[in-house]
Design goal:
By secondary structure, this protein is an alpha+beta fold. It contains 17 helices and 13 strands. β8 and β9 form a beta hairpin.
Length: 547
Amino acid sequence: MNRDKIPRAYDLNARREREFKRQRSGRDELYRREDYDNFQPVMMTFKAFLSTQDDSITDEEALQKYGEYKLEFQRQQLNEFFVTHKEDEWFKMKYHPTMKEQRLTEMKEMLQKRLHVFTTLVNDEFMNDVALDETNQDKLIELMDKIVVLLEGGSEEDIEEMIANKNNSEETKKQIHKTTSIFLSNLHPSITKLEIETIAKKFPGYMRLALSEPDQNNKFARKCWLTFERNAKIREICFGLNNMKIREHDLKPVVNKDLSKRIRIVDKPSTDSKVAELSITTCEKLIKVLDKKAGLFDEDENKNPLLDHIVEGSSDTKVLDRLILYLRIVFSLDFYNKNEYPFEDEMPNRCGLLHVRPSADGDESSEKEIAEYVQKMEDKMSVFLKEKVEIKAELLSKLGLRNENDEIEKFMSVSMQEIESDKWLCILSQKKFKAPQFVRKHIENKFGEKIDDVKMEVEFFNNYIMDENRPKLPVATPMPMKRPHPEKRPAPRYVEQDMRNYEPPAKKSIKDRLGVGGVKVTYSAPDPRDIIDYSDVDSFANFDYDF
């Protein structure tokens, strides 16, 4: 029998389908409620805030108090976020004084190495006669491979061997410029780099790993890339990692695919001479800002020699290409893509992508296309040219910036207790003294490391507060109110009527029966009836549904 002809009340599969949807909606509601806990509490609107104030409050007082309320609300949220995440590795890497300094040192060493590679390529004339356009794709890929070989610690002999063995198979020759990798898409924020490395080092061919910034919209989970040598048995490694856990957390690894196309072409307006002139000016500004930020060069005695080749008003593409390659190799900034590739030295591809101009042949771009291209370039590059703005001291104080001396005084106060007149107890050592100044001196002499911890905590917290782009919980949208389920009512009992005195009801018009506004469904009640199994009825067709 065709399912369409089965009465709905007797269609077992349809009823199972409805029951499954009802259960699934209940689970989804539970998940939404759990996710709601990972958002900031909703701050009161100005109207809601006024309802908590006295009716005699003036407009100026209301605005002032609401501003104070917003600052206090923000201060509490920042403090709560710090307390919640201060033990997380990603948070320490950004703000803990020791780990932050260590990370900055590592990043500077990577930049110095990339600068050395660029200088080597210039001195050895590897970049001569290499134009950044689509007609030179093979030369550009070869240049990028040379860069990777040098970044991996290879020599000029390794570069020559790479070029000579380019047509050989991967199984017979070790390829320094190529790797293979595994991707972990949803790493729990409590998992540390050391824990992942400990597992990854069990497999042959392991090289390095990269961790992304935490995703604020996904409970601060991170992504991870594990890089192995090209000849590593990556599928077997992936299978082995799939059977491992870090504490109770699954890794869910997948094999990372190779880049399908390393040289990519941008829009036609990039070939225009006016755009080239503006690009040279923009590259010069970028190099000055990034050099200064990284401490590589400055505009005084230690000036970048690359900038000496720039002539004002020039549109020479050779000069432009050298500037673009400097940005790409040293700072991992792909100019024509208007994008930065962060932590590229830790990623599987240390120089994976490069965007170039299309061929200059063909129709010229219109004025409108050029104007749109220039506007887009200026908007994207303004992010990198923007100077860091210091938050005002007054605002920092209102947000809870800590004072080192005040925090030490608080530590001293909670570390001593007055037992009786002229008798004080040091809570840390349980020793007794005649006056608080003796307790203070005792703590400074015997527990100096604890005072250092207080100072470190103050700097840790202040680093977080002073960051204008500090991470925080996303703001929650209010959950929609769900109407309560109607109470189940017992079915009415049937009472046999006396048909001798029965009169049919008077017929009403359609408006009287349905109302002026028509039928309005105010709620949908669940089906109170139990599912009855009719699977033994031969005339009903059996259908399989993949839910």
